[in-house]
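Let's practice the habit of predicting before peeking. Look at the sequence and jot down your guess about where helices and strands might fall. Then scroll down.
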Amino acid sequence: MKTKRQVVMSGMAVAIVLISGGLWVTAQETDPTDGRAAYQFEEIGDGVYFATGTGAMTTFSNSLVIVNDDHAMLVDTSVSPAAARKLVAEIKTEVTDKPIRYVFNTHFHFDHAHGNQIFGDDVEILGHEYVREQHLSNVLDQRTNRSFSEIIPGQIEQLKEAVSAAADSDERARLQVQLRVSEAHWNAIQETDPKAPNVTYRDMMKLVKGGREVQLHFVGRGHTAGDTMVFLPEERIVFTGDFFVGQPGAAALPFMGDGFVNEWPASLERLKGLDFDVIVPGHGRPFGEREQIETLQSYLQDFWQQVSGFRAEGLSVDQTVARIDMSDHASVYGEGVRNVDPRAVTRIYEVLQILHPM
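Done guessing? Here is the structure:
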């Protein structure tokens, strides 16, 4: 049975009424920030601002704000319509009151593109043609989206139990903030109605708008089949989304559950061909050390070879997860590298099945 979704907006509060099989379920989105800023902005180039969450609400990923002569551009629209509305509101008060006319999606994943729907048809939303293809499919039921969203109710219940068990008042207050943010995020994602890019490209696109040149590059499959590098050639800044993330450390490895690990190292090699000084990742801080690209290439090559070898031996995904040893990379990526994500191994098995059916 089809579900009718009605969204009633009043400032930053949104009441969502779902009608399904005659059952009314009401979710009230609340702003968990208590007036605090949800984003912080750092100017990293002339009119170019790195935007990241403060923790006052769930934002999940970074964005980039580009201020031109008569308009602004936004790279990635955050994890939910509520987070996107907050981002746009704070851009207006903290960065510029120029209208956002162009939006770029670095890839199709929920945490980078589920704010698209707040923008009207007068705004050009640009992305790789694969992003549009995914957004026009039943992307909310896509495995990656489900794997991150289905765990939220359990996390909320764990936080409720932790609040009840907390003996220290300061600890209880901290947990209550986390609970409020998590509950607000769960309500916020119920509103999501994915909106696909209305302008697409395949290999490269150049825009010269408002006195600035912006280039969109598809350097090859990696994190997904349609990752975009947003490159500012004059400022020598590249926003890589999740194709390349963060400085070395426990959280620096990108999610591989939709990846092409076998092709990713070559795609990273093509990233090196862009003349940049600063990488702005989809998660983590901006940085400039190009050698980190080679570090990830080494990890991906080792990971692919090990998983391929275990599959050739006839091991299951679970057996491979138990056997694989990435400890050689712990000095760079931290001890967490020893805990291999089963979703990444599952994805490699899927790609191998296409390349080498068994």
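How did you do? The radius of gyration is 21 Å.
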